[in-house]
Specification:
The chain is an all-alpha fold. The protein is built from two helices and no strands.
């Protein structure tokens, strides 16, 4: 038994302009999340590298 495509069900209740707006919003939120993860990872790796450089 095939499951219904929930994306199409919800999209059918919205206009194309609303659908574009939701899609753009989701894209920018995801991009912001990924960029913040990268920045936090870089900052964390720098803070762990500094003590090693000072002790050498």
């Amino acid at each position: 038994m095939a499951l219904p495509n929930l994306w199409k069900i919800y999209a059918s209740f919205r206009s194309p302009e609303e659908e574009r707006q939701y899609s753009r919003s989701a894209f920018f939120k995801f991009t912001g999340y990924m960029l913040s993860c990268i920045v936090i990872t870089i900052l964390a790796s720098r803070s762990t590298m500094k003590p090693k450089l000072l002790t050498q």
